[in-house]
Fold each of these.
Amino acid sequence: MDWGKEAARRLAEIATCSAPGPGVTRFPFTAEHRAAQALITGWMGRAGLEVHLDAAGTLVGRREGPAGARTLLIGSHQDSVRGGGAYDGIMGIALACLALERLGDRDLPNAVEVLAFADEEGVRFPTALMGPRALAGTFDPGVLDRCDADGVSLREALAGFGGDPGAVAGLKRDPARALGYLELHIEQGPVLERAGQPVGVVSSICGIERNALTFRGETGHAGTVPMEARRDALVAASGLISTLPGVAADWPGLRATVGEMHLHPNVANAIPEEVRLVLEIRAERDADRGACAARCQELAEARARAAGCEVSFERSYEQPAVACDPELVSVLRRAAGEGVPILPSGATHDASAMADLCPMAMLFLRCRGGLSHRPEEFASPEDMGVAIEVLARAIAEM
Ligand code: GLV
Ligand code: MN
Ligand code: MN
């Protein structure tokens, strides 16, 4: 069997489990998710795994190991962003199943589970990572009441899909029984392509914070209020946004982004009275992220004052940076061979939440043009074949 080509075939097939529109749109607990789950169940079956859906909507495929052996967990997410690609998340599930299928009925040193998590992207509900957080014991049941854009709560959606909201907190695993967690994922950036390498081993996953900012000024007629008499909230907000590239440059590798913004009244002939935006900051070092957030808050206040406005600045989400486990990193390095690049991840992953349960490490695959979160996302069958080999070697060695 050409394992890389088989991966490409399976990913093309499951990419059709998508809402209409360009690329792949597969949100958790939808008809598209259900269709994808049927295919993943088939992949897991071919890999010799016993399959069940857990209370948090994670599809779990398990292969028993020798008596008393711990469990090696391998996973990624089935969901996508809106108009995303055919590789982000789902490829890690497909390659894990293929690596186990390739190992066949050969004796392995440990039990192995493949975990197909429901909701890593956090696009449908204003929360994410329910599956891994449940396993790690860090799940906050309060998020079950959060609703999607149609007013459907996470609790209702999960129950309708066959999960059990009341039992999610009880999914917590015993860390002593978990050997470690591995995740394969497209890099989503240009480093491996530039290095001419098919795979790389991840050193750490960035920390992330989101800050909710509201700039308040005063609306008025766009044709009559003199320029010097205005309190334009968008002038204040854009003053902050335009400085972000320069501000971020003070901390190597730090990223600062305003990707979401709402204007009021948002009409062409009225001065913007209110601007709400989300400032997301990511960094490998939590201290850099904190220092950048403090600088941004000062700048936001200064720009607001200069425009006669006010601003509030509130952290709405935080996820610390996590380092990959040095021993698991060594296992992946040995499996991948001499000279494999080591690189940090600026995207977040299910692995960041699994790190609260057990040691974790990740293998990245080169993706064309470094493109991700868009329909053009692509990893070659050859590179996927390499990654399957590396993972199979690591599973057999651990
Ligand atoms: C998910 O892909 C993220 O990094 O936000
Ligand atoms: Mn993603
Ligand atoms: Mn992903």
Amino acid sequence: MNLNPDILELLKNPKRALVVSLPVRMDNGRIKVFTGMRVQHWDAFGPFKGGIRYHPQVCLDEVKALAIWMSIKTAVVGIPYGGAKGGIICNPKEMSVNELEHLTRRFTHEIMDIIGPYRDVPAPDVYTSEREMAWIYDTYSEAQGYAVPEVVTGKPISVGGSLGRREATSRGTVITIREAAKRLKLNLKGASVAVQGFGNVGYYAAVLIAEYGSKIVAVSDSQGGIYNPDGVNPKKVMEHKNKTGSVVGYPGTKQISNAELLELDVDILIPAALENQLLAENAPRIKAKIVGEGANGPTTPEADEILYKNGVFVVPDILANAGGVTVSYMEWVQNLTRESWSEDEVNTKLEQRMVQAFNEVYQVYQQEKVHMRTAAYIVAFRRIAEAVEARGIFP
Ligand code: NAD
């Protein structure tokens, strides 16, 4: 795309990275200090935007990478946001609700100077949910002295969350997979699907693609995976996970590892867990016709080349999971205008935006003869470059 090297130089670096120490009095009476971070990558179009991840292995480099992806993602779907990401190094599975609430509120307090409805609007990510977003909203509002729902998205409906937000990322993933399937003349009815990760993104992706008549033959979580060639009902699997803590052990299925799940002979693979799952090492064994990246960064650049050569159609994360930030944007607009839209209105707008973004990327994919990820980067960087050039460099 002949990107101006000055713009590349600019975009290689996040604008701001804040690392904070978060003392929390744990239930046992002792104080534990956690590390939190918020990285703001670039904001040429509008406020920074991105999720907050709670994970024992989260680190600054990962958060920086995720922030850059957010800048690119918002540009692919053309919404007026920049990119950001946050993280706290912690293991939420070993913490009580009380400890998580104190941690979330302290983090909000520590990053308060750099977030805000017109500065930076956080959202959920791995191991954070509506509950944490409500705490962020409350803490920020208490400090301001009035309700500021537009400071964070992915909130519960009762406090200004948008209808359709919970399923939005997955709905977008499934829309882009459907569009890819049309181009490949693959019928979604009866198509076999494997989903890695059974959290917010993976679960709803399984439910929504099953509505097209696809068969969910395998799902997994951090404990491992399950497989049944005749398909499982994702809602029943979730009931089992809620009772036992994992999808593993769901009746009538064979236990498989996360690595085995990726290599199953399926039509569609949806990685919806974490980064770096499809690598140079396992990419030659991927049999899926379509990989729809619900997760951020599941495929390494080396694996990308192998999949492309082998004719696997990858719908890249910055397009496939952009439905979440798209409906987050709608939530923010509803909050700013103090309106609430119907679920149909939200889903219709999401459908339009995702299909338009898919078509724009697909057009570049055909014209430039590059894989879909490069095509998506081209679409995004054209938009970002135009905005950066128009605004110029301060001072
Ligand atoms: P989540 O916490 O709701 O779910 C994560 C799931 O992954 C859980 O089922 C967990 O058990 C599983 N998991 C964790 N480690 C695993 C491993 N090593 N192997 C297999 N499974 C593992 O998180 P989420 O919000 O669904 O996010 C999943 C991915 O989607 C992340 O990459 C995230 O950045 C991306 N994403 C999320 C959103 C959103 O709106 N939530 C939007 C865009 C992208």
